[in-house]
Structures are given as structure tokens and as C-alpha cells.
Structure prediction request, 729 residues.
Amino acid sequence: MKVTIERAALLRALGHVHRVVERRTTIPILANVLIDASAGTLMLKATDLDLEITEKVSADIGQPSATTLPAHTLYDIVRKLPEGAQVSIEGSGEQGQLTLRSGRSRFNLQSLPESDFPDVTSGEFSHSFSLPPADLKKLILKTQFAISSEETRYYLNGIFLHVAEVEGHQLLRAVATDGHRLARVELPAPAGSAGMPGVILPRKAVNEILRLVEDAEGAVAIELSTNKMRFSFGETVLTTKLIDGTFPDYGRVIPANNDKRLTVERGVFREAVDRVSTISSERGRAVKLALSEGRLVLSVTNPDQGSAVEEIEADYDGPPIDIGFNSRYLLDIADQLDSDTALFRLADPGSPTLIQDRDGASALYVLMPMRV
Amino acid sequence: MASQRKIIHVDMDAFYASVEQRDNPQLRGRPVAVGSPRARGVVAAASYEARAFGVRSAMPSVTAMRRCPDLVFAPPRFDVYREVSRRIRAIFLDYTPLVEPLSLDEAYLDVTDNRKRIASATRIAEEIRARIREETRLTASAGVSYNKFLAKLASDQNKPNGLFVIPPDKGADFVAALPIGKFHGVGPATTKKMNALGIETGLDLRAKTLPFLQMHFGKAGGYYYGIARGVDDREVRPDRIRKSIGAEVTFAQDLFALDEAVAALAPIVTRVAAHCEGARITGRTVTVKVKYADFQQITRRSTSVAPIASRAALEAAARALLHPLFPSPKGVRLLGVTLSSLAPAGEAVDSQLSLGV
Prediction:
């Protein structure tokens, strides 16, 4: 192998792929990145057996061949090289060693054979469509906070993507829930998505997609089948296995008849929740919302530390009601809303509350109260 | 040398099982296991009648029933055990504030300067045993010596319902005569290794130099060197606040397959869960420790938002952490499970309701 490439191009590509590699893997080949040099292109590939990212960059290929090198070490080396440097990688005389040269630096790196590198993502896709980067980002960013980390309910450890028909419109929906709260975002279904199977996109893929979508320029091509999904961001391609499970029938927990409407200024509300929750050092302490006509009183009581109260203006004309919520959950949702005004639809202190942007129907959040 | 300490180790006899036999006359004289007879159940405690058949705590219930077909299972009643434990602790505190509970049924007491100004630690141990018998109708064994290591060894000597004293001038001799496997902190795996090095008894251990022991056993070498000479400077610490609850097992033979590891995990999880339940503690962070045949050690942990309150939840979390480590390229010689981010159970002020998805 002999490859020459600009440091910036190599760093960018490694930056995209190396995160996939688990820092603490017990299988040596999985600590490596595959490097495949052929006809003017260098292809990099990393996998953890569930998720794979490949990226192609142009390079000066002196002698085509493929090998694998320790991913994090290679990334760290390239990162530390000076800006504007040229990097060359070539097979050295010794068995299994590669030499990386740049300026006056020289590194001899132990490689593992390319043939040991697993291929876990081959196979056909049944559906394909494309989304503008902003739409993909919205679907994922606004739901990912609600993904469950409880490993016993593995089918909640990701975002459920499916197409639903509502009043004759086809919608592409992203849903995540951890059993306490639920986030649902929808968009008009893109061409090609009709009839796609509902799939659960695992958390790690979600995190990487969010990173890659930031750098994406054109539309993102998406392909999927029942057990895997591929996102192509130009020359960077992410392929992931999907969570093999059944996402629960989430529609049942979205309340349809909550009649008490509360509207607050989102920023004011968020800051007030943040302030009063200072008094509870533990996570997950409840903030009590006491609603009465035209006003909302937020309070937190911590037997060990004291209490905090703050009143904010609110548009509410229902009967007085006290309801408690996990302060962290309220902040998470307030952070995802877009409009200046947040709309709460409540039923009673023991039933799910619906939270939305005042006018936007595309994102919806359901939050279960805490008993206070 | 600092003035000689007087340490008592009190250990209830077959605690959970004895409580069940006390409260249910039909169980008396019969082999009893506290735990569940279900297929995947594990014995939490065994009565002496059951132990005669080879039934041991942390043994899978299926194995226990094979060894003792007449075994009677009693479901655990941790509330009762806790209450008894509280009463025993109150007795200890009559004698000294320096009480370090190890679990519900075991504690170290430092009675060097005791509240009753009784000079003889042996007399105190006898009084405590008599009061436990009188107030709880249960028996305890006690060991008396000048450090924790020997006191614990001593309490095991005349079990059940016995007392044993190791006076300062007998400590080293007592240790010398003991088979190595009887030492606290020396499990089956270490025993095997020591035997291979020609160490069968405390005397053999004493013959080894400190560098030799450190070379073969690392940090533990220093501890072994001390105890071989009857030396143990650890203090009785009444203020010990537990940050974590854990258990681990070193296997006689290395494990390679996931199902072997999952099976090996069950008794470890049971021990941790029983301790948590006993102490009324829950935690949110589960750590699984794996030591490979080449002594490389790795840990994997996960933290959940909600407290892990049941044995099943603990096992599920531990398994999920173990899963990605298999198939394992190397043999696994040790597995451990630890629960941390502890909080008192059942005292959450606020309770999050569930959506019911």
C-alpha cells in the first residue's frame, strides 16, 4: 500500500468514522479502522458490529491495497499533525507494519489483515427515500431526549420511525419514550417511504446521525429494510442494525380529551423551573405546578434543604389544580419547543399531560406527572 | 506496640433460616432453605439440618433440592429479619458504641473500653450471647480476640451456639495450624493457587517472604503476610457508610460461554439483592466486573434514572452489561456485580407515575 493524502481531509474522515469504534472492545479487529486504497480514493470504515460508518476521500494512491489500523491511535496521530501537512501511509518491510510519515514525523503502526474485518451490513434494502438535512435533524433531535436507557426494555432504547396515515395524509413519524415521557415529531412522508416497515433506530446510531447531519450539505439518502438502515451523507455512509423488537402502541398514551389549557411564555417558564429546582439537589425531584385563574405558582419542597416558590403569569381559566412534574423532564421539553409560547393540555394530577408549541402541531410531548 | 485491643465478632447461626424455624414450629428439626424453589431460584440461607445435606447459601434451588429432596422452602421475610437485627444491635450498643455491622446477622465490636467496664471480653461475649438468646430466642456464635481477622476466625470455631477465644499469645499458633481455605479473604481460587505454591496451612504461609507473596498475589500479598502472623490492624468502624454493595466469585475453571456466565451471575446477583433487601437499600448504578484468565480486569457500568429495586431488575441490568463481552476470546476467571448510587428503599418522597407504554 502507498497512499498520500492531505491531513485535513484524512482528519475529517477519521473524525466521522472513529467514534463508532468502542474504546474498550475485547475483539482486537473492532479497535481498528479499515483503510482501502483504490484508484484515487481512500475508503475508511469502522464498525462495532451494530453500526458501521464508511467515508470516501480522494487521495493520491501509489499502490492500491487494503489493511486495518488502530482507529483511535490513528485519529490522535493525524489530529496532532500540523495544519496543512501531507500524510503518507505505506507498507513497511516488516510483517504487518505500516509506516505513516508526515514532515519529519514517522510512525510505525501494527496492522491487522483486512480479511479479518467484519462485514455486517451487506444485503438488500426494501425502501428508499431522501430527506433534507434540516428535516432529518428535526425528527431526531426533538425526540432523542426521551429515549429510554433502561436496558431491560431494549425496544425503547431508540427512536421509532414509521409512516402513519392521518386524515388522508401520509406522515413520517419519529417517536421515543422512556415510560415517563414521550416525544413525537412528524413530517409529510417523503416519496418512497410509503409502505415502509416501522423501525427502531438505536441510540448510538442516533447520536452519530446527529453529528453527521451537521456537516451534511445536500439531501440525505435513506434506505431501509426490516433489520437495517442506511443514511448516506454524500461520501459518508452510516449503516446500522435496527433494534429487533416491537415498539409499543404509543398512541394509547397520547391523551385526546385533556380539557384544561394552560399557556405560558416558554422562556419565562423554563427559567422559573430551573430556578426553583435548585433547591432539590437530587435529580428527579418534583416541581409542583399550582394553577388557578390567570396564574401559575411553581414550588419545590426538599425536606433537607428548604423550599422555593415562584409565581409566573399564565393564561389559564380552568378550575384550580395542583400537579407535579419531574423538573428535569420539564426542562428537556421546554428546550425542544420552538415557539415562544408553550401550550399545556391537562386532565388531572394523575393523568398524562400534553405539551406542544402553541401553533405547531408537528411536535408533541406527553409527560406523566409525579405524585406530590 | 499499641495497647492490646479486645474485639468480638458476633455471628447469628443460620440467621434467616433460624428465624423461620423459630416462628414456624413445623419447620423445626427439618431441613429448611430460605428462598424460592422456582427453577431459577437461589437459596438465601440454609438451616443446619439442610447444611448436613450439603445445601449452602447462594446455591441454585434446583441443586439444593437434588441434594436434599425433603428440603422445605420458606419465602424470605426481610421485615422480620431487619427487626431482629435491630434488637441485636441495641444489645451490642449497651456494651460499646464501636459496633461495625457487616450485614443483618454479623458485627464486629471493639470492647477494649466498654460502657460496662467489664475487663473480660470473653465475659462480655457470653453476656451478649445470653441476651440474644433471651430476647430473640435465637442463637449466636461469638469469637473473641485482639483483632478483626482472628475474632472472625474464632466465631466460626464452635458454631453453632458457641464461643471461642484466641488470646494474644495464641494468635500466631492458631493461624499456623489452620488450613489456608479457612482464612477470611481466601476463596477457592486463591486456595488452589496457594496449594500449587506449596502453601497448605497458615504455617506454610508464614514461611513465605513478603516479596514472594506480593509477587504472586499483588496487593493482597501484604494482607496475607500480616494475617499469617496473626496481625491485622483494621479498626472497628461504626461510622462506615456503605457506598456500594457488591459480590464477586472467582471460578475454579475459567468460563468462555455467555450462558455459563449468565448462570454464574445468578448467585452473585442473589447475594447483592439479598443484602440490599436486608439493609433496605436500593441503587441506580450497576457495575459488572470481569477478570480474565490473564488477570486483565474490566468493568462495565450502567446507571438508570429509577432505583433498581428488585433482584430481577438487578439481574437484567447485569446481564445486559455482560452480553456484549461474549463470545469472550479469553477465559473469564472472576465475575462481580456491584450496586452503587445507593439510596434508602421505599422512601422516595415523590413518585414518578408511568405512562404505561
User: Anything to note?
Assistant: Chain A touches chain B through 35 residues (CB under 8 Å). The helical segments of chain A are 7-17, 71-80, 133-144, 203-215, 266-276, 327-336. Residues 255-367 of chain A form a domain with the DNA Polymerase III; Chain A, domain 2 fold (CATH 3.10.150.10). The CA atoms of residues 31 and 70 of chain A lie 6 Å apart.
